[in-house]
Amino acid sequence: MALPPSMNELLKWSVENSSVTAADPTAPPPQTRTLPPDAMNVLFGGPSDADLMKASIYAVQSSDPEVTLEDKVVAFDNFEQLIENLDNANNIEALQLWQPLLGFLAHEEKEIRKMAAWCVGTAVQNNEKSQRCMLKEGGVPLLVKMSVDAKRERRMLGERLDGMDVATEELGKLGRSGDKIDATDMDACDVLIEGLREEAAKGV
């Protein structure tokens, strides 16, 4: 079984800082390389990426008046950076964060809705496992419902579906079309959106 990246970094650091002097006691000490934060966390029990992901979502959910909108945007930005890592993106399901993340698409704050859509896009980008999780949780209708302007809606959906083969196939099914849809084909997406608009209006 492959070691977590943090453990690999720790092992590499250990080898680099012991191999030279072990082979030749008279050799000058090796140049010390600073341990990355993840490896430091392994040594000293700092928060894991999973802990940080949950903390970010909890911060966005917070009703504490001292947690400002700016704080929540920063938390979202941290979350987005974490899920750029494929393993972390796939871990959204295990951490049960898909529902709250998708729920933010209907948030009253426009900035929260935008950041949520951006994070969804990052999580599913060229990642079939996360695409299927997002679809299972009903993410596509929510993405469509969040926009009221037709042109902005078409552009946003196309951007969010870029690289999402599984999702575009699912959109074809929702639009009652058996053909695979090219996410960059805005005319094709527009036809599908019209089919989804009525469902979204009913609260789907």
Structural description of this entry:
The protein is mainly alpha-helical. The protein has a domain at 48-150: Leucine-rich Repeat Variant. It has 13 helices and no strands. The mean pLDDT is 74.
The string of secondary-structure elements, in order, is: HHHHHHHHHHHHH
- The total of helices stands at 13
* CATH T-level fold name of the domain at 48-150: Leucine-rich Repeat Variant
Tell the overall outline. globular
Q: Helicity level, as a percent range?
A: 55-70%
- Quote the average pLDDT: 74
CATH class type of the domain at 48-150: Mainly Alpha
Pfam families: Fes1
Keywords: Repeat
Family: Belongs to the FES1 family.
InterPro entries: ARM-like (IPR011989), ARM-type_fold (IPR016024), Hsp70_NEF-Inhibitors (IPR050693), Nucleotide_exch_fac_Fes1 (IPR013918)
Could you write a compact summary of the structure shown?
The chain is built from 13 helices and no strands.
Topology (elements, then pairings):
Blueprint: H1 5-16, H2 19-23, H3 37-44, H4 49-61, H5 69-82, H6 86-94, H7 98-103, H8 110-124, H9 128-136, H10 139-145, H11 150-160, H12 165-174, H13 186-201
Helix pairs in contact: 1-3, 4-5, 5-8, 9-12, 10-13, 11-13
Keywords: Repeat
Family: Belongs to the FES1 family.
Domain Nucleotide exchange factor Fes1: 7-92
